[in-house]
Automatic annotation (TrEMBL):
One Pfam assignment: Aldo_ket_red
Any one GO molecular function term: D-xylose reductase (NADPH) activity
Name the record gives this protein: Putative NAD(P)H-dependent D-xylose reductase xyl1
Sequence positions that bind substrate: 112
Gene3D superfamilies linked: NADP-dependent oxidoreductase domain (3.20.20.100)
Record GO biological process: D-xylose catabolic process
Keywords, in A-Z order: Carbohydrate metabolism, NAD, Oxidoreductase, Xylose metabolism
Keyword match Oxidoreductase: yes
Organism this protein belongs to: Xylona heveae (strain CBS 132557 / TC161)
Active site: 50
Domain NADP-dependent oxidoreductase: 18-301
Length: 320
């Protein structure tokens, strides 16, 4: 069963459900991507910062070689890291990331954060993370406009079919749209019932920008990453409201949480090491929640954000 798609403002179709590569280990990444393709996934969401693009590309190459899928049937997403925002570094790093994947183009290339950091040569450290020297965060000088216009040239060069943004607040999108020659095709944000961000989603979708949710299950990924902001937060999988809706629809809580997003036109990029759950996460569009169900889950909002730089020791409060 193929995932339904969203028509992007660039004219391309993006699957509504994909596989996220954040925190997928180098040792398992190739096999996980390969198995996800066999299961039916066609969208893979990666990034320089995840440090596993070579392995992800190996999984893709294996599936293509075995005739399971054609490159044209896949939708590969990657992201521009903060250290490469200067205009002269955008195209070279895009080419490096494509080489790591073993691809000629990305279907979507996203500005990972609206943050410019001082350039770190990939030969010195890659991925560089938030620090310049392994210890110190050093701001860069590139404006969002400079970086965006360099990304537009990446599209002109045929290295990416669409470009997008991530972790942007509405005010930054409003500013970007003033000068964008190529409008962002997507906005990727943290989005789960504890952080619903309805006004941001409404604004983006109203501007023809598709929204993709990351961390659709809320705390678990951040607990695994050792982030204090997620410790002690009740699991959404066990929340009475989610469990009740899941029981009524004969689905599991993860499927309900994903359907809560996709039914409102928000794409999702979950991951799982479990083969059964992998298939379940992909097949979340064969049932509908009632408006009462949607409202009940949305009412769990606490404006609780887990992916915030200060929460992991980086004093760049972009969401303040």
């Amino acid at each position: 069963m193929a995932s339904p798609t969203i028509k992007l403002n660039s004219g391309y179709e993006m699957p509504l459900v994909g596989f996220g590569l954040w925190k997928v280990t180098n040792e398992t990444c190739a096999d996980q991507v390969y198995n996800a393709i066999k299961t039916g996934y066609r969208l893979f969401d990666g990034a320089c910062d995840y440090g596993n693009e070579k392995e992800a590309g190996q999984g893709v190459a294996r599936a293509i070689k075995e005739g399971i899928v054609k490159r044209s049937e896949l939708f590969i997403v990657s992201k521009l890291w903060n250290s490469f925002h200067d205009a002269e570094h955008v195209e070279p790093i895009t080419r490096k990331q494509l080489a790591d994947w073993g691809l000629e183009y990305f279907d979507l290339f996203i500005m990972h954060f609206p943050i410019s950091l001082k350039y770190v040569d990939p030969k010195v450290r890659y991925p560089p993370g938030f620090t310049y020297d392994g210890k110190t965060v050093v701001p860069g000088k590139a404006s969002i406009q400079e970086t965006w216009q360099a990304l537009e040239k990446v599209v002109d060069a045929g290295l990416a079919r669409s470009i997008g943004i991530s972790n942007f607040r509405a005010v930054l999108i409003i500013d970007l749209l003033r000068y964008a020659r190529i409008r962002p095709a997507t906005l990727q944000i943290e989005h789960h019932p504890y952080l619903t961000q309805p006004q941001l989603i409404k604004y983006a979708q109203g501007e023809g920008i598709a929204v993709t949710a990351y961390s659709s299950f809320g705390p678990p990924s951040f607990v695994d990453a050792g982030m204090d902001s997620a410790k002690g937060v009740p699991s959404l999988f066990e929340h009475d409201a989610v469990v009740e809706v899941a029981h009524r629809h004969n689905k599991n809580p993860s499927q309900v949480l994903l359907r809560w997003a996709t039914q409102r036109g928000v794409a999702v990029i979950p991951k799982s090491n479990n083969q059964n759950r992998l298939a379940q996460n992909l097949h979340v569009n064969d049932f509908d929640l009632s408006q009462e169900d949607l409202d009940k889950i949305s009412s769990l909002n606490k404006d609780l954000r887990f992916n915030d730089p200060p929460s992991y020791g980086v004093n760049i409060p972009i969401f303040a």
